[in-house]
Specification:
602 residues; alpha+beta; Heat Shock Protein 90; Ribosomal Protein S5, domain 2; Ribosomal Protein S8, Chain: A, domain 1; 22 strands; globular
Length: 602
């Protein structure tokens, strides 16, 4: 039998490695930005075309590379960051695995230009699919410029799996923000399709956060500062009143590296206990510094997960630090929630003498509890004929109400009630063959979904003009997303007055929307659009209609009048697809009389 195991060619091995390192354009951006930081850059420029599918270029003013290093950087397992295995447990740099550039070059056209400060000429290398096309000496400025073009050009299946430009750009911006927030002293510039998205001058941490998320962020921030032997914590948390329905503005950095940690997030949320509305999430920008030897950052390919030696101690310190800052800046509530200040004795009365006569206490000397008495004599002192009549009338009204709510004896009633609400969650409607149980939230989602979808795609919805226009702050990329959906939102009933770099002014809203819901609706819409938006334009409208329906639909616990119940039933069965919600859940179930009988006969 012949041997079947063989070594893979380098270009195939590189493509396999690329599947782990390069998942989408944002993966390339992350690797190139981190390399620029490791090179000691003070200025980093990121240029994009078509959400990185056509071009990703990073230009830095770092120390650059020699001709030999430039060539070696594209070899697998080539790195300047580690020399021996022990170095993995004492890392202070970003990229260290030595596979990034080799993986990127295997699936794209790459052009590298680099020069060291003490050299007269730099080096230019062009690579296509792991094959070096050319290497020349050139005249260029100090630092490195690397351009990645036509990503996944030789793996069309992977390219087809990429999402729309909107989604891919969102992922790139997420990576850009994380790196920019981790290094506030470095100048960052981001251009997409020749449009400036970010221009971040070197500054302090607070100024960098405000520059990334808009000027309104400044008033929301509460500083955090704590130093211990095993942990330093710095950064900011947002005041509870500025909490959001999504988890977007939550950032943990450990030794200037962005990480994700549900464990540490739980510590922060726990510190906000009692301060947040249900379903809201706090915003925070927390920078933790720990000894490099106490963490392992090589447990995940993207290096966004870290293993700590002493997680429980970090949890306790983080929770206590956040709680202390909330209290220090008068954000946390007072401890005694039951105290009534109206019962406090005024200070100037504490030692005052009692003025006026002492209240007299009268006693009935003839009172004998064992003395036999008639029923009339032992009657309660506050009982009266009027009170008796009121109790009797109460029971009469209850009796009448019960008689009116006999569900199945309609012939004895003067008015037939056709719907009944159960636990403020379901609506029961009587039909000839039995009953229909309707899930009020799912049913309302279906109704609103079809209404909004028709408004967006077929006809313009009615709009109600606001007496005072509402100005809402968003980040620059969120403003850009809203602007791209402007016509669809106007069809749905929104009316816009002004767009700026970090805010939008709304002067009209759909008739089904209240003014207090505007911010929530737009935040939820942006969140839903950021998740997974297909390229098809109809699907774009579909996501918008679903988002509106989810946000505005009746929630469990909402009490409905009889008229509102009947309206819900009628509107549901007028829908084109009344059986399921926009999210695939059943809107109603039917129980026949036979099925009800079987419940009792089984």
């Amino acid at each position: 039998m012949s041997d079947i195991i063989q070594l893979l060619p380098d270009h195939v091995a590189n493509q396999i490695a690329a599947g782990e390192v390069v998942q989408r354009p944002a993966s390339v951006v992350k690797e190139l930005l981190e390399n620029a930081i490791d090179a000691g850059a003070t200025s980093i420029k990121l240029l994009l075309k078509d959400a990185g599918k056509t071009l990703i270029q990073v230009i830095d003013d770092g120390k650059g590379m020699s001709a030999t290093d430039a060539r070696m950087s594209f070899e697998r397992h080539a790195t300047s960051k580690i020399q021996k295995a022990e170095d993995l447990f004492n890392l202070s740099t970003k990229g260290f695995r030595g596979e990034a550039l080799a993986s990127i070059a295997a699936i794209a056209h790459v052009e590298l230009k680099t020069k060291q400060e003490n050299e007269e000429l730099g080096t230019s290398i062009k690579i296509e699919g792991s094959k070096i096309v050319s290497q020349d000496f050139i005249s260029t400025s100090k630092g490195t410029s690397i351009a990645v073009k036509n990503l996944f050009y030789n793996i069309p299946a992977r390219r087809n799996f990429l999402k729309s430009d909107t989604v891919e750009t969102r992922h790139i911006i997420d990576e850009f923000q994380r790196v920019a927030l981790a290094h506030p002293t470095i100048y960052f510039l981001l251009h997409h399709n020749n449009n400036e998205v970010y221009n971040l001058r070197g500054s302090n941490l607070r100024q960098r956060i405000v520059a990334v998320f808009g000027s309104k962020m400044n008033e929301k921030l509460v500083p955090i500062n704590e130093h211990t032997d095993i942990l330093d914590i710095q950064g900011f948390i947002a005041k509870p009143e500025f909490s959001k329905r999504k988890r977007g503005e939550q950032f943990f950095f450990v030794n200037d590296r962005f990480i994700k940690s549900s464990y540490l997030n739980h510590a922060v949320v726990n510190a906000f206990d009692g301060l947040l509305e249900q379903g809201s999430h706090p915003s925070y920008f927390l920078y933790l510094t720990v000894p490099a030897s106490t963490i392992d950052i090589n447990i995940h390919p993207t290096k966004t997960e870290i293993k700590f030696d002493n997680e429980k101690a970090l949890y306790a310190m983080l929770r206590a630090t956040v709680k202390h800052s909330l209290g220090q800046y008068n954000v946390a509530p007072v401890l005694d929630f039951n105290r009534d200040s109206n019962l406090d004795t005024p200070y100037h009365f504490n030692k005052s003498a009692v003025k006026g006569s002492v209240p007299k206490i009268t006693v009935d000397p003839d009172f004998n509890p064992f003395k036999e008495a008639s029923q009339k004599e032992v009657a309660l002192p506050y009982k009266s004929e009027q009170n008796t009549q009121s109790w009797e009338s109460l029971y009469t009204s209850v009796s009448d109400e019960i008689n009116q709510e006999e569900l199945f004896d309609h012939q004895q009633e003067t008015k037939t009630q056709k719907t009944f609400q159960i636990q403020r969650k379901y609506v029961m409607s009587l039909i000839k063959s039995g009953v229909v149980l309707i899930h009020q939230s799912s049913a309302h989602q279906r109704i609103l979904y079809e209404e909004f979808l028709e408004s967006i795609t077929v006809k313009e919805a009615n709009s109600q003009q606001l007496l005072f226009p509402v100005k809402i702050s968003f980040t620059s990329q969120e403003i850009e997303m809203i602007y791209t959906m402007k016509s669809e939102l106007e069809n749905a009933g929104f009316s816009f007055d002004e767009f700026t770099k970090d805010s939008v002014t709304i002067k009209g809203i759909p008739v089904s929307v209240t003014e207090s819901k505007i911010t929530i609706i737009l935040e939820e819409l942006l969140n839903d659009m950021n998740l997974e938006v297909p390229d098809a334009s109809f699907s774009h409208f579909d996501v918008m209609a679903k988002s509106f329906a989810k946000t505005l639909s009746l929630k469990t616990g909402t009490k409905l009048s009889e008229k509102e119940q009947e309206s819900l039933v009628n509107n549901l069965f007028s829908c084109k697809e009344s059986t399921i919600s926009p999210f695939g859940k059943a809107t109603f179930k039917t129980l026949t009389l036979n099925e009800i009988d079987n419940l009792f006969n089984s």
